[in-house]
Amino acid sequence: MSDLHYPVKGQCQCGHVSFTLKAAPKMVIACHCKECQKLSTSAFSITSIVNADDIEINGELKTTRRVADSGNENVGYFCPSCGNRIYQLNPAAPEMIKFKAAGCLEDTRMIVPTMHVWTSEKQGWVIIPDDVQQFDKQR
Predict the structure, then answer these.
(1) Does residue 132 lie in a domain region?
(2) Is residue 66 part of a domain?
(3) Is the residue at 109 inside a domain?
(4) Exposed e or buried b for every residue in 26-50, given b needs 16+ CB within 10 A?
(5) Whole-angstrom distance, CA of residue 103 vs CA of residue 46
(6) pTM, to two decimals
(7) How confident is the model over 5-60, as pLDDT tens digits?
(8) How many domains are contained in the chain?
(9) What's the CATH number where 114 sits?
(10) Residue 92: inside a domain
(11) Average confidence score pLDDT of the chain
């Protein structure tokens, strides 16, 4: 991916929210928990962890709040028109963004999971490469 250049632009499904990723994600996590399966309507969700300063988001967003079993609060930001989840954050650590819409970027080559979490709840057909970190639960 040495030919991948930042910034990389993207937008939600309907185009009302746009974003620019200015630097590579710190890590890319595939979460296999049942909640992420519901959220993504797929076998897992992908989250790119980025510094808040490394992403620019334009457009109106709606929010949802959820408290995890750990007690951590997650605030989800999504497009009010198409419903695409754009990002999440923990209000106690707003400098770190959990970018959920990396699949909407114009170039998605950086979205390669470096870690898989909640593998204890993964779908049986999902095969995780041996050289990628795996955790039965949240890290």
Answers:
(1) no
(2) yes
(3) yes
(4) eebbbbbbeebbebeeeebbbbbeb
(5) 8
(6) 0.85
(7) 999 999 999 999 999 999 999 999 999 989 888 988 899 999 999 999 999 999 99
(8) 1
(9) 2.170.150.70
(10) yes
(11) 91
